[in-house]
Amino acid sequence: MRKFLKISLCTLAAVILIFAVTEASIIIFGISAKPKKSNCIIVLGCAVYGDFPSPFFQERLDRAFELYKNGYAKYIIVCGAKGRGENISEAEAGKRYLVEKGVLPELILKEEKSFSTYENLLYSKKIMKKKGFKSAIIVSNMFHLERAHLIAKKLKINASFSGVYVKQYLHEEYYGFVRESVALWYEILKILASV
Q: Which positions fall inside the DUF218 domain (predicted)?
């Protein structure tokens, strides 16, 4: 019984340590990410409420617009297919939002086939290849960036990153950081399994 308890406590301690190190890595990557001048900005998909971007998606789009206005890139790729409860695709909602802010429609490229971060970047890479783009700034929530970095690296996308933190939705942000720890390890294990 004592041996079982000792093994259980050691296992629990190891899990807590791995979780803490992973969380620290996610936070540090998100905070330290800096955009570099690139050919395009990729806005990773997020929920749409009917026809309008959710608050998290709006923040990502606002960051993309800020980067665009400051001359970081000429083109913006907005990602995301039409999900459950959405009247239009995430990419279409993102494009409409950016056009209203003053971005020329022809400078916004829609990626409307994806349902995951991996697909966001996979299909965006195809758009980049078609357009001859060599580099991108990937925009998402801070907690999402390290996993996006792993996927971009796997897909050989030359990318820098820019993250948002939505202060008015602290509960959702905290949940995102916790959930992302599991998602990051899932991505790492997938990459290791494919080697």
A: 40-171
pLDDT tens digits along 101-158: 999 999 999 999 999 999 999 999 999 999 999 999 999 999 999 999 999 999 999 9
This prediction's pTM: 0.88
| DSSP track, 95-132 | HHHHHHHT--GGGEEEE-S-SSHHHHHHHHHHHHHHHT
Q: Helix, strand or coil for residue 9?
A: helix
Domains of the chain by start residue, with CATH: 2-194 (3.40.50.620)
- Give the position of tokens 């309008």: 52
Cα–Cα nearest to 153, from 168, 175, 136 = 136
Answer for the pair 142, 164: CB distance below 8 angstroms, yes or no. Answer: yes
- The token pair that represents 145 in the structure block: 């960036």
